[in-house]
Amino acid sequence: MQNNHNHRHRNGEENGEAHDNFFHYNEEDERCDEGAYECTHCDVAKFRYPDGTVRLRNPHIELMDQDILYHLALGSESHDLVEMFGDVKFVCMGGTPKRMEAFAYYIMKEIGHKLPTGTTLQDISQYSYRYSMYKVGPILSVSHGMGVPSIGILLHEIIKLMYHAKAKDPIFFRIGTCGGIGLEGGTVVISDDAVNEMGQHHYEVPMLGKPVRRPAKLDRRLVRELRALADPEDPYETVIGTTMCANDFYEGQGRMDGAFCDYSESEKMAYLTHLQSNGVKNIEMEVVPFAALTHHAGIKAAVVCVALLDRLKGDQVCAPKEVLDEWQIRPQKLVGRYIKRYLQTKGRISFDGHGSMAVKSPRRFKLVQQESETFD
Predict the structure, then answer these.
(1) Residue 253, annotated as binding a ligand
(2) Which of 68, 224, 263, 331 has the most CB within a 10 Å radius?
(3) How many structural domains comprise the chain?
């Protein structure tokens, strides 16, 4: 594809070329073509059908008799995924099942969604025993577990779910917790960039014995819209900055309280200070695959986290539970404001249905459940 517009795009990492300097890009490698760092506008055009539904970057799916979303206990022929999820506009994900169940109830109240009398929210993926998923009108609330592999698996299947459901222009949010760098506990961080522990802006996955790198990019316009919704009356700060993704909770984040530690306090502080000087506001364990896979799918996405501590002051989370519980609601409030404003603007504040099962084939439905229950 010829570059005939004014966007500047970073490349050089997908071809296995690692930059030597932390947070450094080789400007000579920038371009916009297939496989490079495309802009959001390019992605939407390439990875959407004309009606706004998701276009998968996997030609093999259409040739399959059935696509089993193994870790969600759903299937393209066992369930009527269009009936169940075709109206989904927002996919909100966070680490734990309890947090995402709480968010489902929170957003249900915020948008005025009513469940039919005598019913309650249903964990749609309860038979997977891996992830929990709740549907509130056009909103999915899903747990993604902890760390890169767990959220990577979920994203593959959620993106395929949006494809099978024919959901139009879905927006993904990660709502989570993190460690701040120079930020007080309770500060909300909206990620505008994502880097790994080496300061690289890509997600690397070994495929067929070779490393494949995909750019980790978040939607900048969505970042600005979220920041604009931060209330000046909020008793806490909301900031924008780069988020570092670690593959480990302890040594990978420079903590000194793990079972092992082969560095000194001064070395740890030098590393954290270096991150801070390069614009890193917080550390967590999912932003890079989240940004990379949503970008690769052409899906608008954003990450909003709350800092549970300032890593420049310590390694352990020591705030009382009631304080932590209140802090964890703060990212939910910001994302909730965005969703509520969007639905009010579109005139869609009330929805029927609550994510109940729509079985297409009873036989296949039972088989999918049994398959998902096979292993703990």
Answers:
(1) yes
(2) 331
(3) 1
Q: For residue 291, with 0-12 CB atoms within 10 Å meaning exposed, 13-18 middle and 19 or more buried, which class applies?
A: buried
**Is residue 15 in a domain?**
no
Residue 4 CA to chain centroid, in angstroms?
31
- Domain residues for the domain of 237 are 27-372
In a domain, 13, yes or no: no
| 111 has binding-site annotation | no
176 marked ligand binding residue? yes
pLDDT digits 0-9 by tens, 67-106: 999 999 999 999 999 999 999 999 999 999 999 999 999 9
Query: Was 181 annotated as part of a binding site?
Result: no
Mean pLDDT within 16-24:
43
Question: Can you give the CATH number for the domain in which 151 is found?
Answer: 3.40.50.1580
Instruction: Indicate whether 373 pLDDT > 70.
Output: no
User: Is the per-residue pLDDT at 376 higher than 80?
Assistant: no
Helix H or strand E segment including 82: helix 81-85
Largest CA-CA distance found in the chain, in angstroms, rounded: 62
Other beta carbons within 10 Å of 106: 17
Q: Is 120 annotated as a binding residue?
A: no
| Dihedral over Cα of 131, 106, 91, 234: its sign | negative
Residue 3 falls inside a structural domain = no
| Per-residue pLDDT tens digits for 335-361 | 999 999 999 988 654 444 444 556 666
Residue 7 has pLDDT above 80, yes or no: no
Tokens of 282: 């917080």
Q: Token pair for residue 309?
A: 């501590």
Amino acid at 108: M
17 located within any domain? no
Q: How far apart, in whole angstroms, are the C-alpha atoms of residue 161 and residue 74?
A: 9
Distance of CA 245 to the CA centre of its chain: 12
